[in-house]
Amino acid sequence: MTTRVLITGATGFIGSHVVAAARTVPGLRPRLMTHRTALPASAVPPGAETVYGDLADPATLRGSCEGVDAVIHCASWLGGDEPTARSVNAQGTRALTEEAARCGVTRIVYLSTASVYGRGPFTALRPGQAEPAPASATSLTRAAAEQHILAAGGVVVRPHLVYGAGDRWAVPGLVGLLRQLSAVPAGCGARHSMIDVQALGRALLGAALSPKEPAGVYHVNHPEPVSSSQLLSTVVDELRLPWGANGIDVEAARERLAGVPYALHHLGMLAVDHWFTDERVDQDFDWEPGDGFTTAFARHAPWYRRHLGLSP
């Protein structure tokens, strides 16, 4: 039996890993929606098709869901421009759900983010235990997009820190923080939910194909949280950064980073728990989370070293 799945944002950081996971599923025929970036032939799985679609232009979505069994919606606007974020994330997602409904597609999986909750601390937070309190235009409009997905009976996936090949925010931001400090923050016992992008790609695909027909909000991360100290030591060791022997306490780090907003943002994240849990994911998505952070990050370290211009 052939299953057809539409994947939006197919060239993006996470969408491209959904496409890679789709290669391993017999009988699956993906339809890959792209906007700005064309997919190289080598990235298109056998039997896949590509279509153009612009979430900011609903007319271009017409027909995109014809003949598909599920939609995996990974495309989002992540910039700080609120009108564009609203047009793409909120209004574009609404247009996509309307097109899916017109075509009779009832399984929609939306890649959101735990950032819709705002700043922590969050300790072992389960879905339904806190209301969204987004603090940025991106998170605000992605929270709005979630409401369209939930109203359509779909699945909302909220990962926290996603790392791996293609990451240009989580680990690069930490490296930027360490570079600004020329030291490693010490005494950070906070815990963080993290997920390897390859595992997240498999989870999104699993949600779309699961015979259990999941619906609602899921926290999708590796079940074992990572302490700030473990996160920092792993990044320093695997990327062979030069500041590992230099420690600095958090308050002194805040003083040193005054006037560097992005570094203060990452330091603030490290200082308090951002730990989200959800015991339903493995069974509802027929999914295995794979290796923990230390082992999985080692596989991605060569990509980070190339991306960050570090010595190989």
Topology:
Elements: E1 3-8, H1 15-22, E2 28-34, E3 49-52, E4 70-73, H2 82-102, E5 107-111, E6 122-125, H3 137-151, E7 155-158, E8 161-163, H4 170-181, E9 184-186, E10 191-192, E11 194-196, H5 197-209, E12 216-219, E13 226-227, H6 228-239, E14 247-249, H7 250-256, H8 261-271, E15 274-276, H9 281-285, H10 293-307
Parallel strand pairs: 1-2, 1-4, 2-3, 4-5, 5-7, 6-15, 7-12, 8-11, 9-14
Antiparallel strand pairs: 10-13
Low-confidence stretches: none
CATH superfamily of the domain at 3-167 and 194-222 and 277-290: NAD(P)-binding Rossmann-like Domain
Q: How would a crystallographer describe the biggest sheet?
A: 7 strands, parallel
Q: What is the CA-based Rg, rounded?
A: 19 Å
In the CATH scheme, the class of the domain at 3-167 and 194-222 and 277-290 would be Alpha Beta
Q: From the helix content, strand content and strand pairing, which structural class follows?
A: alpha/beta
Number of strands: 15
Spatial shape? globular
What fraction of residues sit in β-strands?
15-25%
Percent of residues in helices comes to 25-40%
N-to-C series of helices and strands: EHEEEHEEHEEHEEEHEEHEHHEHH
CATH topology of the domain at 3-167 and 194-222 and 277-290: Rossmann fold
- Distance between termini? 45 Å
Side-by-side strand order of the widest sheet: 3-2-1-4-5-7-12
The CATH architecture of the domain at 3-167 and 194-222 and 277-290 comes to 3-Layer(aba) Sandwich
Average predicted confidence as pLDDT: 94
Number of helices: 10
